[in-house]
Design goal:
286 residues; alpha+beta; 2 domains; 14 strands; globular; binds flavin-adenine dinucleotide
């Protein structure tokens, strides 16, 4: 197994695209190292991206923030600007593992590991986050919901890697939130995860919303019907009821030792409602 730690994106791309065997990118390594140790993957090439300066930066851009692919999630929790703009993304990243894990784990690793239960993914989806991908053909931009293709599978082509995530700016009176259910109090994998983002007009009615669910299908789902239940309403009891029903109806879960299908479907509705209530409270404060 060859280990490389390039200092430029272009070198990383040429290493990845030139490798004939299996290549893996190493960001924080909190998924990859576990997979290596358990023999789940045996790459011929590992490309560590932590020495690429562009990937270590958080920068303000067009009212939003660009987060390099090698930025650990602990840095998001310490960033006042991101915490103020997208608290739901920060709270989702802050649920990944423990303080020690967050010192290494990246939101891009969380995304590209492509676990349906990845915590930061529904939160990034409702934020309308855009991934910038570099590859042999140059750079392209993709909404984060287009990255995971199924469990452990991404839509990235050979030689491609994500270099940053852009969290856009947002209008006043906006709020977001992420909630998950786990059987323990922490250090566990989501049985259901729900992200909600919404914006209120001056009259207090909801003008825009996004709702995403994790751990209830082969990849995180953006649920337009759930968002539609909120748009045009005062996010009142009736709207929250419709939101919960739409979130539950969108679930395509599996049964496993963490929860049954029926349980996941029920909990998705409950969490969607609670996350919307928190997003609403935050929007009213902004
Ligand atoms: C004890 C423990 C607890 C955990 N708890 C949680 C939890 O509560 N919630 C949760 O969601 N996850 C959890 N995880 C999983 C893991 O920490 C997260 O998924 C983390 O965000 C992965 O990020 P990373 O930077 O460490 O990724 P890595 O391990 O470096 O990479 C993960 C995968 O993504 C690929 N990859 C990485 N960067 C890129 C890139 N720039 N472009 C393309 N592909 C890339 C890698 O090749 C690899 O396949 C836990 C892990 C451990 C060990």
């Amino acid at each position: 197994m060859r280990y490389e730690a390039p200092e430029r994106v272009e070198t990383a791309v040429s290493l990845l695209s030139g490798e004939r065997g299996l290549a893996r990118i190493l960001a924080g390594g909190t998924d990859l190292l576990v997979q290596l140790k358990s023999g789940m993957v045996e790459p011929d090439l590992i490309v560590d991206i932590k020495k690429i300066p562009e990937m270590r930066r958080i920068g303000a851009e067009n009212g939003g923030f660009r987060i390099g692919a090698a930025v650990p999630s602990a840095e998001l929790s310490e960033h006042p600007g991101i915490r103020a703009l997208w608290p739901g993304v920060v709270e989702a990243a802050g649920l990944i593992g423990s303080t020690q894990i967050q010192g290494r784990a990246t939101i891009v690793g969380n995304l590209c590991n492509a676990s349906p239960a990845a915590d930061s993914v529904p939160a990034m989806i409702v934020a309308g986050a855009i991934a910038t991908v570099a590859g042999p053909q140059g750079r392209r931009e993709l909404p984060v919901e287009a990255i995971a293709a199924g469990p452990g599978q991404t839509s990235l082509a050979k030689g491609e890697l994500v270099i940053s995530i852009f969290l856009p700016g947002r209008p006043p009176r906006s709020g977001d939130a992420y909630l998950r259910f786990i059987p323990r109090t922490e250090m566990d994998i989501a049985v259901v995860g729900v992200g909600v983002s919404l914006t209120l007009g001056e009259d207090g009615l909801c003008t825009a919303a996004r709702v995403a669910l994790g751990a209830v299908a082969v990849r995180a789902l953006l649920v337009d019907e759930a968002a539609d239940a909120l748009i045009g309403t005062a996010v009142d009891e009736a709207a929250l009821e419709r939101l919960a029903a739409a979130a539950s109806a969108a679930c395509r879960p599996i049964d496993d030792k963490r929860g049954t299908k029926e349980f996941r479907i029920k909990v998705a509705g409950v969490l969607a409602r609670r996350a919307a209530e928190t997003a609403l409270e935050r929007a009213r404060r902004n």
